[in-house]
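Entry 14. Two folds queued back to back today. First construct below, sequence then structure tokens.
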Amino acid sequence: VLVADDNHLNQVVLKKMLATYHKITADTADNGLEVLEALKKKKYDLIFMDFHMPLMDGLEATGKIRQLYPLSPI
């Protein structure tokens, strides 16, 4: 699982919930560019994407992911 959010507290809360309730370890990204870099290195079963982020927002990142990795669940 990849959690994309520029708010560190949101990242921590979601990672903690996933770990506590579902035993899932999540990676994090602070913006859409980091999401695209992470996807070059690893395949994710699920991506949680914030809408408003610096450098590249969630909408633009989602569009690029759909082009490059059409089967990635966002």
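Second construct, same run, same settings:
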Amino acid sequence: IIPAVEVFKCLMECVDTDKFALSRKGLRDGVFYEELTKEFGLSIFPNVIEESFYELATDYNININHV
């Protein structure tokens, strides 16, 4: 586990950020939406992270109003 944490720490330093968000499918969905809307010239995509949180809440029966 510690080596994996170090990898993420180095990555965050390389991209100069202090935030990290984990999504079960953020990159995949982001690429999908980009391809889906490419011919329409749209640059606004659904909030993949927020949708992932809602999906996790549903999967684990978490009341989103109490989170």
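Quick look at the second one. The mean pLDDT is 80. The radius of gyration is 15 Å.
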